Structure formats: structure tokens, C-alpha cells
Amino acid sequence: MNDSGPHRSAYWRKNLRTLASLLLIWFIVSFGCGILFADTLNQFKLGGYPLGFWFAQQGSIYAFIVLIFVYVIRMNKLDKEFDVNED
Amino acid sequence: MDILTWTYLLVGLSFALYIGIAIWTRAGSTKEFYVAGGGVSPLANGMATAADWMSAASFISMAGLISFSGYDGSVYLMGWTGGYVLLALLLAPYLRKFGKFTVPDFVGDRYYSNKARVVAVIAALFISFTYVAGQMRGVGIVFSRYLEVPIEWGVVIGMCIVFFYAVLGGMKGITYTQVAQYCVLIFAYMVPAIFISMQLTGNPVPQLGLGGNLEEGIPLLEKLDGVLSDLGFAEYTSGRKGMADMLMITLALMVGTAGLPHVIVRFFTVPKVKDARLSAGYALVFIAILYTTAPAVAAFGIYNAIQSTSEKNISELPTWVQTWQKTNLIQIEDKNGDQKVQYLADPISNELKIDKDIMVLASPEIAELPNWVVGLVAAGAMAAALSTAAGLLLVISTSVSRDLVKNFNPGISEKKELRIARLAAAGAVILAGYFGVNPPGFVAEVVAFAFGLAAASFFPVIILGIFSTKINKEGAITGMIAGLVFTILYISYFKFLHPELNTSEHWLWGISPEGIGSIGMLLNFACCYFVSLFTPAPPQSVQELIQEIRIPKGAGNAHDH
Description:
The complex is a heterodimer of chains A (87) and B (561). Chain A is mainly alpha-helical and 87 residues long.
């Protein structure tokens, strides 16, 4: 097992990059589509939903779930790749 | 059978179930008492977290809040779910790896300081107490509405139940009871929602029904916008709050969620780091089932309420209106004497007052569902209130027995520590019950407090404790105190000292007391950073601790000092 400092910081950097991209999406779906651009998006319809309203009351929540599961899968892979997993 | 019999039967059965589980899973060691032995499966923990999280307010009041605020109500939906993303990505896995039992444990060890630990304990106790008082009140209200006993008796009965399984079972008992409570509460929430969605839109899935068409072929939301503007209200789907305030409230609720000690502690109960991540995902799925249904219940509720009362003859109102008039949750006053109900935005000519809790509590009757559904909703509301109260009481008892007593008397035996934990839980139940019976006048206001304080105190120091090796004890202590003091003063100023000034023109940058926790959080971050620049860096042992919690390997079980 490789347990050196550089090995660990490479793992940590990759982790931070994953976090940054997922949190960016987190910000866009909620604060972006749900609030900042909600009025603009409301001009479009999703079924009977104005789109901005849908993001604020439905879509952002679905996106949150997807984000966590993507994170789980990515991190399990990363843990194995760097041999820092628990099994 | 009539409604009252069904309610007694279903509430009684659910209580018997919780007590049975508590006896079956009672805690034998401090580890079982604090973190359920650290052996809970991610799925069960996710379900328990969901029940722990969804309080009487989520179950009874949230849909009604959205009914009357429309789009603006989205802050609760996004705020109380988006926090789980932060929890899963930024906190849960690392705190699990750290492997102690409480949030003050982490703060004390990472910032190598008992002072930091004590500040954290005080914050944890304050947050949990403000929250639990509201829950006990919720238990009392549900009892008094459905079982026709006085509120005081309702609180006492609720206290006895919580006392029994929280004190006896500790975290282990609470976890498995919460799994059962989740099932009860989600079933109770979904049954009326599905039927109402079917009746209004023909679609059994409420999440789709909300975006569906009414029988006449017009989208429900479009019709609702029209109906509300005709009566002088703002459109349902467009916002009324300032954008800065929307952003700040959402952020404060998200960050507050991720910083609530009773939520964080749930992730200490799973066996592995990867279980902590997965478990946060499951928790959000279980929470989202209710949180995506609530906006549908909200819109259906306000639509039905208006359709069945507005411009209708007072003598010909549906029976549910008459039933709930007795409880004063619906009030009708025929001001212009035309024998009809006028529901209007203008408070002077408006003749109808609807309490927000009606949207959920009366939903089975509005949908003309059989009596047993009413009993089911009562049992669901009880489950929501009890599960949250129990989780909070555990945080309180752990804070006392472990973070205070054990930390300053490391020599005490496990048996004695367990006894102190149980005593503290018992004391907390009694105190919470007292507040339930004699609520301080500001129960509704304290919610803003709990979230604002969690956002302004714990979240920044935990995040920085994991993601920075530079932040030291001086920074963390200053940050927590600055965040707490600022947030407490701002909320107290507008909520208690000068409620008459509580309008947007007096607020700092147009941010309401509900959203001020976000600013408190930024202040905390800034203090941590700048104070750490000018004071000695954390010692080598802490640097190693940080490196250690960043990788999952070697997590082992949650362990003692």
C-alpha cells in the first residue's frame, strides 16, 4: 500500500475537484435556476409548470439527490483507485 | 367506526409499536446509547435520519406555509433539502472517519481546546432546546385536536412516550423507532395527497398532478394564478420577497440544516465512511418523497379551500369547513351581511381566515376520504413530532454526560456515564415538556433562531476544520462567538425588542432575520481566517489528525477517547 504524502495529496486534490464541480451544479440548480433566473425561466413551460417555479419546488430537489449519488459512486471509485478504501 | 375511535386505535397501535421496538433494542453500553453501537445499515440510517429531520412543522405546517406564500415558500423546500448535499459532500464522511460521538467532540479535538469544546456544547444545547420545545408543543396540539384532550395532557402523554424510549433505548432504540416512525408518517402524508391529486387532476402522482391539468383542461397552476389575482392576491407562481432575501434565507436554511447537531450525529452511527456518504443519499431520497409532495398538497389545498368557500352561501359550506370552524382554524365573519363568504387579499373586507395547518390536517376530509385516514394523519403527525423530539433529547443528554461530565471527569466508569446520560435525557424531557405546556410566546420565532445559530456557529468551524490545516483554536473560538453573538442580536432585535421595525426597509441589506444566519456564517468564516493569520498555527498532532480524517482508510468503529 502506498501511504506517502504526495499520494495522499493527489487523492485530496481529485476529491476537491469532484466537490467543486458537484457544488457548482448544486448552486446552479437551486440558487441559479430556482431564484436568480426563475423569472426568465418562467417564460418556458414544463407541462403545467412554469420552468423556474418547477426548479424551485421540484427540480432542484431531484438534482440534489442525483448529485449525492454521483458523489457516492465517484468517491467509491476514487477510494479504490488510490487504495484508501476501507475493505 | 367514527373518527375519534379510529384515531385512538391508530395512534395507540403506533405507540405500542414504538415501545415494543424500544424494549427490543434497548442500549446496554455508552456506545450503544450514543451512536447505536456504530452498526446501523446505511438504508436504515437514511430512514431514521429522515424521520429525525422531518418535524411536526414539516409534516403539519410546511404545506400550509407554501399555500399562502406560493413561490416564496420554495425557500423551505430548497433550503431544507439542499443542506443534505453539503452534509454528504463536506461533512458526513469526514466526521464519520474522525469517529467520535458528538459535534463538540470534533470541535474540541480539532481545535485542541476545551474552551472551543465548551462553546460548541453551549451552542448545541441552545439549538436543541429551542427546537425541542416546539416539538413538544406540536405533540400537544395534535393530541388536543384529534383526541379531544387538553393540550397539557397531550404534552404529558407525549413526554411519557419519548421518555420511555429515548431514556431506555438511547440512540439504538431511537434509530429503530425512527425507522418505524418514518414509515408511519410518509404513508400518512401520501395517502390523502394521492387521492386529492386524483380528484383534481386525474393523476395519482402528486408531483405530476401539480403540473397537470384540471378537468376543464387548464393547467392547475395557471388557474390558481388567475383565481388568486382575481381576489387581489399575488400570483401563486411568482415571487414577492426580495431576491437578496430569497437567496439568504435559502442559504441559511441549507447551511443550518448541515450544521444541526442532531442531524450530524446520525452519521456517526453507520459502520464505514462510504456508508456515511450513501446514507446521506438515502436520507435525502426519503425526505424528498415528502418534500416534493408538500408543494402539491399546498397548491391543491389552497385551490380547494378557495373553490369550496369563496362566494358560497354560509349555510351551504362543505362539512369539513364547519368541523374545523369549531377549532378556530377556520374563521368566518360575514362582515357585509350578504350571507356569502368573501375571501379577499384586503384585510378589511376579507371574511375568511384559514390557519396554515388546515392544508394537511383537514386534507382527508377535503378529499372525502374514509374516517381511518383521519386517524392515520394524526398518527403520522405524532410520529413526525416524536421522532424529532427524541433525536434532539439524545443530543442534549449526550452533550451533558459526555461533553461536559465525562470530559472533565475522565475517570468515571461507563456504567456511571450511562446513568448520567439517562438522567440528563430524563431532565431534558421534563424541561422540554415544561416549555410545551407553558410555551414562551415566541415558539414560531425560535425556528429562525435554531437554523441561524447552527449556520453561524458549527458549519464554518467544521468545514474549515476539515478543509484547512491552518485554522487554529483562536480563530475557531472567535469565529463561533462572533457568528453566534451577531446572529442572536440581529434576530432578537427584530423579533423581540422591536418587532414593529421588522420590515424590509429596516433590515441590513434587505435580509430578514430568517436569512441573517448566512451573514453570521460569513462573519464566522472571516474571523476564523483572519485571527488564524496572526496567531500560532495548530500543533503537528492536529495537522496529522486532519490528514487522517481526509482518507477513508482505517475508519474502524466509532471509538472512545
